[in-house]
Write the structure tokens for this entry.
Amino acid sequence: MASIFQAVGAAAALSSSNSFDSKKFYLSSRKSVSERKGSIFVVRSDGRMSSGRVDKLVTNAVATKADSAAASTASKPGHELLLFEALREGLEEEMDRDPRVCVMGEDVGHYGGSYKVTKGLAPKYGDLRVLDTPIAENSFTGMAIGAAMTGLRPIVEGMNMGFLLLAFNQISNNCGMLHYTSGGQFTIPVVIRGPGGVGRQLGAEHSQRLESYFQSIPGIQMVACSTPYNAKGLMKAAIRSENPVILFEHVLLYNLKERIPDEEYICNLEEAEMVRPGEHITILTYSRMRYHVMQAAKTLVNKGYDPEVIDIRSLKPFDLHTIGNSVKKTHRVLIVEECMRTGGIGASLTAAITENFHDYLDAPIVCLSSQDVPTPYAGTLEEFTIVQPAQIVTAVEQLCQQ
Amino acid sequence: MFQSLDFPGGRVAFTSDMSFIAESSEKRVKCYRVLDDNGHPMSSRFEQVSKEVAVKMYSSMVTLQIMDTIFYEAQRQGRLSFYLTSNGEEAINIASAAALSPDDVVLPQYREPGVLLWRGFTMQEFANQCFGNKADYGKGRQMPIHYGSNKHNYFTVSSPIATQLPQAVGAAYSLKMDRRDACVVTYFGDGGSSEGDFHASLNFAAVMEAPVVFICRNNGWAISTPTSEQFRSDGIVVKGQAYGVRSIRVDGNDALAVYGAIHAAREMAIREQRPILVEALTYRVGHHSTSDDSTKYRPADEIQHWKISRNPVARFRKWIERNGWLNDEDESELRGNVRKQLLHAIQVAERTEKPPLGDLFADVYDHLPSNLQEQERLLRETIEKHPQDYPDGVPV
């Protein structure tokens, strides 16, 4: 996968000059598939290429086994950590950098957060900057908005994204709107984050995919992280953004391990991530489904296919530049998501691609999503509601035959 | 032989008598009042107000009254799409504003334009917002009366009820972090106290020891819902103790009582870093808004009674007059000037250009993203092709 490497001090502005130049990349990476498998390409801002090791494709994408060849870590650049630690590192760096950054949520203080993202921060920054709130999601989200309008940069942690349904009023009517309705007088630089998605038998209420509900709200941005690298980068970018940003994490990805750079970096909020370049088909996905897609990609490669996998990362707005370049090349699109079929991110992505790149499509867009059912508790049933690698392989085969 | 139990939350004495706390006390919480109905002070112990401040308070109350009358009429004439008045609540508006410092951050509900007026918002600025022209600080994006001005420390009005309450706690949290010598003041009505956000905000403010003054304008009506159908407690003041918040009930139609109570509340909030709840009893003389006709659900003579005999402006006037600080001439000159100013402001506002098309898309984000650029381009193209289908007078 290739990511945009932003040097420290460079502004992470919304400008097309920062966007990924796909043409430049393809010309310089005519490596064979087997060589390419399992490497990260980091495209630096000066155009040089370097590669590092990344963990093998994971099954079930929960915890990652340690890299078998990582005997001596001292010789390799960067440091290894788990995704939740990467989030914390990003958060801590930003809190060090800017005294206005603060965190609020349930059990984020001395408990360190339900997923340990804020562990150790309360003792370091004090009770006021890492604030434990009573249980009232709409109200502490409102509180963050009021604090933001008064000059702070709060990060709201929802213990589970599903609970933020209670905060919908504040998020929709105030967070996304007040900058606009006040005529630009008040800014709301809040970050709202938390784990969502289907976990391991957590039941329907704890398996929500809220990105589909929030995507319509004007004035907010939405991003979904999927690796320790982009988790840290997106967290930092979200905190620095003047707009309200919702950062979607996934319950099952917190223990993913990866080696990330020691140097400071931010990821661009509006950019998609090229996970695996290819020629035959564009597979668009995000969050946990990325790993199911990559597992399917292994099988597909063995069968002779060359899929291009893009982790869209930016859910609002979509990175139609990267996506478009891919569609123009492969002419076939498969979307793999965890959202429900009706009204999900896949549904709007399908519409956006059809509208903009219809002429480049050789086949109708296929979207693999979860069914329109509440997520059952029973493990087997739960597994049936999530798109599995085998389905992805079948869908690609069918699409490529057309 | 003090016997107590230690459960989480502290020691508590126990008893063998099973008794339930009554749902309400026999006597209602008393109401703090300074002036009687004829404007006579009922005691000599009250927060004194200088002549300068008193006269400014009175003229602001009169200005607010006239502003309400004229804007309301303008809506009836079809020149404004919507308006809502603060009739009957002038004392709450002005006297509370007078007791604050300009650094105190105000989060209004929507019936508190008097606070903005006190802080120096001009007739022209009010009119511009109501007409949604290009001089409006909100750039024409909100309904009339949804004023907002960061330089006056008055957060933009947002229609949903009580959403400003948790935001007030957040703003106070920010002031607390910076150790500022200021507090947050937020307003809401009797109806607003039913919203979940009200309860959570009082709770949060108490736990966080946030310097917020919560002012409830209990005016008896939430559109057509009287307080008897809104809650069964003794008003809002008793809810304070339930959350660990110090509270007071005050006669909202008594400018001096409101002034004194808010001044004291503010001091306590800042010095002790705690929230205070003030329930100001009053009456909503006007209709809920221009979309309402309150004679449908309440008797016309009740409205008249409060409009005439219980008028807060008239009551305060009597006190000022008796002090020799105002006479009839001053009054009519004041009223004449305000009226003239207002009519002029309305004329100017009406004639001022509306915001340009670009303002439809700006400020959704800090910079215009590509999807909105695209949407703006499409809109401009469409308008160019079919200009007769779009309103003229909107700069493109």
Remarks:
- Chain A touches chain B through 50 residues (CB under 8 Å).
- Residues 2-26+35-44+78-260 of chain A form a domain with the Rossmann fold fold (CATH 3.40.50.970).
- The first helix of chain A runs from residue 22 to 27.
